[in-house]
Design brief:
mainly alpha; two-stranded antiparallel ribbon; elongated; 205 residues
Amino acid sequence: MVRITKDPQVRMTEILDAAEELFYVRGYHETAVSDIVKSIGVAQGTFYYYFKSKEEVMEALINRQISKFIFELEKVVSADGMTPPRKLELFVQTMFHTIHYKDGLLFEFLFNDQHLHLLDKLRRQGKQLVMPLLLRIIEEGEQNKAFTVINSHVALVFVGGILNCLFDAVYEKLPDALFEQHVKMATILLEKNVGLPANSLNIQL
């Protein structure tokens, strides 16, 4: 039986932090549980006391990052004295600024064929939490006549599609000039989708 000598939450955080660092440096597939425990000087039994597998650690990391992500987005949606167009603009910018991790991108080591199931989980969980926040902005804009949409839920689907295209462009690491064109097109489509005049949004990524 494993003897627990640290506060459980402290130990879990320690394991997650160590795993996260190794995943970015070595890759998820290339990192073993033995590497994680070695980096923090504990036995493998300690690891398995808290996590059933390396994949469960990855899922915990995804949940931890999404919680931070949603916290920042919630601040934008709930901001007082900010117009819906400005909220939409800032929401998009916050989303894309938050996915940067040190000198790279958040969870970019998952973006290959070996980890499609984990990447799909990341996308689905993120979508489930982000879309209701976006809907709140769209509905607020519709209520105060800042936006003109046929149906707020339909508009939400198309906004989500536009943002997905931008995410793909970020993780594909397109040349700057081509990425700027993606941002310009996304901005135009967002304006049209919610019924804003041209040049209403100034999205800087």
